[in-house]
């Protein structure tokens, strides 16, 4: 691992490990990544290169020469419909430099730790309401009953959308997420129609909130002002869409991963049941141990020297969070073990929310969602156990990954008890 620093050389002249195709839960994943990571920080992989070690993933995310490569990888996968591509990646991911700083500044307060904490009570009540429907039966399908509707309900609540309209949002997110789960080409008409309906709805909601302000994110964004600068209607529309899309599939898939990981480690489950103050640490550890977002695409339009490598113009790379999140440089020799009491020995913690200027805007909100869901399930579903098995999405790669079906049994329970001790 202790390489001497060498002068940068063209990537084609360097003897790099080659990553085979493997699934995110492949039992061999840690071994495959470990072997490659020990040889070099970079590997060849399908469609380009993969960055494996923690320091290089962090450095690349912080380096402004590496920009979002989402659209390049979609184009290379044969998706060329401009109506679809022009909306991607979201305005935050697309923007760089002063434009990006301006956008982040205007929305910073709403997405701060304090901003997220304001929604904890709503989240807890909403989860309780969902569990009330299945509590007496002692049986649930966690995806359908909880993880699928919950993140969309949270975003609707953030935006101040009336509850009677939530079903519309459930439909739009389901259609738009055909991007990750289905055949994008075949679903294109449905995806574009959902975009259009969402645009129209949000435009009307913006008009309403301009006339009658509410106590919600949309009103906050309408009123947000930095040195006389305000967001235009089109910007507001695209921010709402960005938040809805960036904040739903990511969270629902991570909820499944977090719960499955905890239930599959009975010793860690027992620790959590005995000491709920470990919940925030368990959420952080589950994000590290198995992430719904496996990494991010990065792209260099120009020839670029980075560390000991020169990438030619038009190179597509993938930063690999799964590998960086178990890099022993940061996590020690037992990095591949799930331990809810773990503290990182160095670095900036797990990288599942990214790092640097594009670090996840909704990380504080997602953390509260994960904490409340884990705590409430453990509290309200005593003796919870996976009923048969969890069914996982087949797809690996750069897209979101997680559970499709997650049946559980538990001791039938009584209505919600609100005064549990946590947070
Ligand atoms: C467990 C759930 C989540 C995960 C794993 C996740 C992951 C990520 C990652 C890795 C990035 C960085 C992308 C890059 O560097 O190219 C990102 C950006 C972003 N996320 Fe999340 N996210 C989650 C939840 C949310 C939520 C709940 C929201 C909104 C409420 C949200 C909104 C955003 C936005 C707007 C960006 C773009 C930030 C920018 O470019 O400046 N995310 N997310």
Task: List the SSEs and their pairings.
Blueprint: E1 9-10, H1 29-39, E2 42-45, E3 48-51, H2 54-62, E4 67-68, H3 70-76, H4 82-85, H5 91-94, H6 97-107, H7 113-117, H8 120-135, E5 139-141, H9 142-147, H10 149-159, H11 166-176, H12 178-181, H13 184-211, H14 217-223, H15 233-263, H16 266-274, H17 279-289, E6 295-300, E7 304-306, E8 309-311, E9 315-320, H18 321-324, H19 328-331, H20 363-380, E10 385-386, E11 391-392, E12 403-405, E13 407-409
Parallel strand pairs: 1-8, 3-9
Antiparallel strand pairs: 2-3, 4-6, 5-13, 6-9, 7-8, 10-13, 11-12
Helix pairs in contact: 8-10, 8-20, 10-11, 10-15, 11-13, 13-15, 15-17, 15-20, 17-20
The structure holds protoporphyrin IX containing FE.
Residues 61, 68, 90, 92-93, 104, 242-243, 246-247, 250-251, 254, 292-293, 296, 352-354, 358, 360-362, 365-366 line the site of protoporphyrin IX containing FE.
Briefly say what this structure is.
The chain is α+β, with helices and mostly antiparallel strands.
Q: Explain this structure to me?
A:
- 50% of the residues lie in helices and 10% in strands.
- Helix 13 (184-211) crosses helix 15 (233-263) and helix 17 (279-289) packs across helix 20.
- Strand 2 (42-45) and strand 3 (48-51) form a beta hairpin.
- Strands 2-3-9-6-4 form a 5-stranded mixed β-sheet, with helices on both faces. A 3-stranded mixed β-sheet has the order 1-8-7, with no helix packed on it. It has a 3-stranded antiparallel β-sheet with strand order 5-13-10.
- The protein is α+β, with helices and mostly antiparallel strands.
- The protein has one domain: Cytochrome P450 (Cytochrome p450, Orthogonal Bundle).
- Protoporphyrin IX containing FE (HEM) is lined by residues 61, 68, 90, 92-93, 104, 242-243, 246-247, 250-251, 254, 292-293, 296, 352-354, 358, 360-362, 365-366.
